[in-house]
Specification:
With 256 residues, this protein is of the alpha/beta class. The chain is 44% helix and 13% strand.
């Protein structure tokens, strides 16, 4: 095993899992040795070697370094970027359309742009966005392989929750994105997006930890990364949700 190559990637991957709250991992024997040599085994995680599983090698997708372009999606962006259909346009700096792979099989949908997103015009670029990148990486994907959007495209004043009429006005835009991207799985980040897409008032605790159906697409709900920054104790539950997402994704791929 190349100590400076594969083991370095494995160590970074392991550190991300620890940050998400995982305390016990099952790793291949060669990774156990690499981690011990790097002294990362001195962390609080307990490492156990596992028996080989044939599906593991095929389960992890190849990382992409560039995001494919979609003329159709970009045309749609240009058509709606100057929208004034609801009050939120009055205070925006930039319209936050969405970002990622237009052919993504996993789509993450958050609540609304915040200050950093409003300034840059891209979803999840602040501290919560950095944590989301780690969450995505923890299941073997990169930001460039998934698609990220919000229920509304403009920042609500003082980062308040988007109101029902604002989400209703913006929903056709999100729906069109979903139709164009055709994800296999949608992951709602937080209560607001989960409740809205599932048309329910159920609490987040009752929505997460299971697979829902959204217009024939598998959907799960987990904590918003911003909530994890405030309440780190939720990271363990978020990791459980991500394992469920990855398991569901692998099942969908194996079934064609």
């Amino acid at each position: 095993m190349n100590q400076n190559g594969s083991s370095g990637s494995a160590i970074k991957f392991f550190e991300q899992l620890i940050e998400l709250g995982e305390t016990e991992l099952i790793l291949r024997e060669e990774l156990v040795q690499a981690l011990k040599e790097s002294k990362i085994a001195a962390t609080s995680a307990r490492i156990k070697p596992s028996e080989p599983r044939p599906s593991q090698a095929a389960a992890k997708p190849q990382a992409r370094t560039a995001v494919p372009k979609s003329p159709e999606l970009e045309k749609f962006h240009q058509e709606i970027k100057d929208c004034t259909k609801c009050r939120l346009h009055e205070g925006r700096t930039k319209f936050v359309f969405g970002v990622g792979n237009p052919k993504a099989e996993i789509m993450f949908i958050g609540e609304a742009p915040g200050r950093d997103e409003d300034l840059k015009g891209e979803p999840f670029v602040g501290r919560a966005g950095q944590l989301l990148d780690k969450i995505i990486a923890s299941i073997g994907f990169s930001r460039e392989e998934v698609y990220i959007a919000n229920t509304v495209k403009c920042r609500p004043p003082e980062n308040r929750e988007p109101r029902p009429d604002e989400m209703e006005t913006c929903h056709p835009y999100l729906l069109k994105q979903i139709e164009m991207i055709k994800p296999k799985i949608i992951c709602c980040l937080g209560r607001v997006s989960g409740q809205y897409l599932l048309s329910t008032k159920e609490a987040l605790g009752r929505l997460r930890g299971k697979i829902h159906d959204y217009n024939g697409i598998k959907l799960l709900v987990t904590y918003h990364p911003a909530a994890l920054l405030r309440y780190p104790e939720y990271k363990k539950e978020t990791w459980e949700d991500m394992k469920l997402l990855k398991k569901t994704y692998e099942e969908l791929r194996s079934n064609g």
